[in-house]
Design a protein that fits this description.
- It is a single chain.
- The chain has 2 helices and 10 strands.
- By secondary structure, it is mainly β.
C-alpha cells in the first residue's frame, strides 16, 4: 500500500503596489499625460506590517497608518533601503476619505491630489507613501513633471496583499 505524504507547501504574504499619476489641465480637466509604475516597498514599511501583527505598544497602529503622500524632485531609482524621498518638496495629508480598503481583492487604494497652487516650480519625479510616524512605506520615481498652476497631479496608489 502506498501512503501519500503530507505535501504542505510553504506560504507567505506578498505586498506590491502600483501608482498611476494623471496630469490634468486645471481649466478643462482633460488628462494631458499619465505615468504608471510599480513601487518599491521599503524595509521600514515591511517592519511596520510586522509591528501591526505583533500589536506591540510602540509603534501604535496610528503611527503605522498610511497618513501622507509625499512628492519630491530626486529621480534616483527607489530601493528597499530608502527611508525618505530623495528630495521631498510637498506632503499631502491623507484622511479616511483618501484610503479605501477593498477586501474582496485584498487591496488598499490611496488617492490624493497635488492642486494647482501646490509645489509649483518643481520638477516632480518621485512619490512616496508615509506612515503617521513619517516612516517611508513605499517609494517610486517617474518621468519629471515641471509643476505649474496650469495643471494638477492626481495620484492613485493601489497596494495589494496576496498569499504566495
Amino acid at each position: 500500500m502506498i501512503q501519500k505524504k503530507n505535501m504542505q507547501r510553504d506560504s507567505g504574504i506578498g505586498i506590491s503596489g502600483r501608482l498611476v499619476v494623471k496630469v490634468c489641465d486645471v481649466k478643462t480637466g482633460r488628462v494631458l499625460r499619465v505615468h504608471r509604475g510599480k513601487n518599491q516597498i521599503t524595509y521600514d514599511g515591511l517592519i511596520g506590517v510586522i509591528s501591526l501583527l505583533a500589536q506591540d505598544t510602540l509603534p501604535t497602529p496610528s503611527d503605522l497608518q498610511i497618513a501622507y503622500l509625499a512628492v519630491g524632485t530626486n529621480n534616483t531609482p527607489a530601493t528597499q533601503g530608502d527611508v525618505s524621498l530623495g528630495n521631498q518638496v510637498f506632503k499631502i495629508p491623507l484622511s479616511s476619505a483618501n484610503r479605501q480598503q477593498v477586501g474582496a481583492t485584498q487591496q488598499l487604494v490611496v488617492t490624493a491630489q497635488l492642486g494647482n497652487s501646490d509645489a509649483n516650480g518643481y520638477d516632480i519625479c518621485e512619490a512616496g507613501l508615509l506612515c503617521g510616524n513619517n516612516t517611508m512605506f513605499s517609494r517610486l520615481t517617474f518621468a519629471p513633471e515641471h509643476k505649474t498652476a496650469a495643471f494638477i497631479l492626481q495620484f492613485g496608489w493601489t497596494l495589494t496583499l496576496k498569499a504566495l
